[in-house]
TrEMBL record:
One GO MF term: histone deacetylase activity, NAD-dependent
Active site per the UniProt annotation: 118
Domain notes per entry: 2 residues (Tyr-66 and Arg-69) present in a large hydrophobic pocket are probably involved in substrate specificity. They are important for desuccinylation activity, but dispensable for deacetylation activity.
Reactions listed under catalytic activity: N(6)-succinyl-L-lysyl-[protein] + NAD(+) + H2O = 2''-O-succinyl-ADP-D-ribose + nicotinamide + L-lysyl-[protein]; N(6)-acetyl-L-lysyl-[protein] + NAD(+) + H2O = 2''-O-acetyl-ADP-D-ribose + nicotinamide + L-lysyl-[protein]
Residues the entry annotates as binding Zn(2+): 126, 129, 153, 156
Protein name according to UniProt: NAD-dependent protein deacylase
Organism: Actinoplanes siamensis
All residue ranges annotated as the Deacetylase sirtuin-type domain in the record: 1-255
Assigned EC number: 2.3.1.286
Primary subcellular site in the record, as a coarse category: cytoplasm
Function: NAD-dependent lysine deacetylase and desuccinylase that specifically removes acetyl and succinyl groups on target proteins. Modulates the activities of several proteins which are inactive in their acylated form.
Length: 255
């Protein structure tokens, strides 16, 4: 099974789910969690910074890390992979985009309302009363990032935390329900740039496979999803996704 088989499955599909992870944003310049952290963050690993415990113990460190990540995302652009996903919505009868990413590159590429299973860098909220909080306008600090004290809630003076799902936390119920419903109803699930290691999100492609959908996987490296994939398309998303769309529907510029 190769690119042309995958293209045929896609072209005939009535409902496609695209399921993305950090790998689709890697070529835009957003580091994945498996990339080594640099600068101030090189002494830490992402799995221990992205926890409620880390925020309780050292809120300035964790808030500073998320501000640094938000700045990276604001400076970069969607790549051909995100653009191909947005274009796919115009080519198949129904498309649901489910992402584990906390960046906004799908939206900026033109995908309407992707499901954010792990929250967003752009939706901070109060750690105490959970009310949404305004995004602070951070001065444009160059370089490596620094500790930044989190803002305080205007209602209860609690600390403002990033609106992301940390390791050990529950996924937002409505997002998880929408994702599970789409995964069990789709006929093709296209998984892109995810290690398939972070649960329960990694259940989504498995649920699609169990429900009888064809699973197409785009990733330059082997993943635990390889055995359930109907077609494995090794390579970077920004190359493979446009090639897949061209194989299915002919060439067109993605802008
Ligand atoms: N951009 C972001 O929003 C971002 C960045 C880092 C981490 N995260 C968080 O990381 C957690 C880890 O899960 P994950 O599976 O998303 O990421 P991950 O870091 O565990 O895995 C990334 C995967 O992408 C693959 N990859 C690397 N470059 C690629 C490319 N050019 N094209 C296609 N695939 C490529 C890697 O081989 C790997 O399998 C998630 O909870 C997510 O919220 C998000
Ligand atoms: Zn509050």
């Amino acid at each position: 099974m190769d690119l042309n088989d995958a293209a045929k499955l896609l072209e005939r599909s009535r409902h496609v789910v695209v399921f993305t992870g950090a790998g689709i944003s890697a070529e835009s310049g957003v580091p994945t969690f498996r990339d080594a952290l640099t600068g101030l963050w090189s002494r830490f690993d992402a799995q221990s910074l992205a926890t409620a415990q880390a925020f309780r113990e050292d809120p300035d460190l964790v808030w500073g890390w998320y501000e640094w990540r938000r700045r990276i995302v604001q400076r970069v652009h969607p790549n051909q992979g995100h653009l191909a996903v947005a274009r796919l919505a115009t080519l198949v009868p129904q498309l649901t985009v489910i992402t584990q990413n906390v960046d906004d590159l799908h939206e900026r590429a033109g995908s309407a309302s992707p499901v954010h299973l792990h929250g967003s860098l752009f939706a901070p909220r109060c750690a105490t009363c959970a009310r949404p909080a305004p995004l602070p306008s951070t001065p444009d600090q160059s370089g490596e990032g620094r500790r930044v004290p989190p803002p305080r809630c205007a209602h209860c003076d609690g600390l403002i935390r990033p609106g992301v799902v940390w390791f050990g936390e529950q996924l937002p119920e409505p997002a998880l329900e929408t994702a599970a419903r789409a995964a069990s109803a789709c006929d093709v699930l296209l998984t892109v740039g995810t290690s398939g290691l972070v649960y329960p999100a990694a259940e989504i492609p498995r649920l699609a496979a169990r429900s009888g959908a064809a699973v197409l996987q785009v990733n330059p490296r082997p993943t635990p999803l390889d055995p359930i994939a109907t077609v494995n398309l090794p390579g970077p998303a920004a190359e493979v996704l446009p090639a897949l769309l061209t194989a299915a529907w002919g060439g067109f510029p993605l802008a």
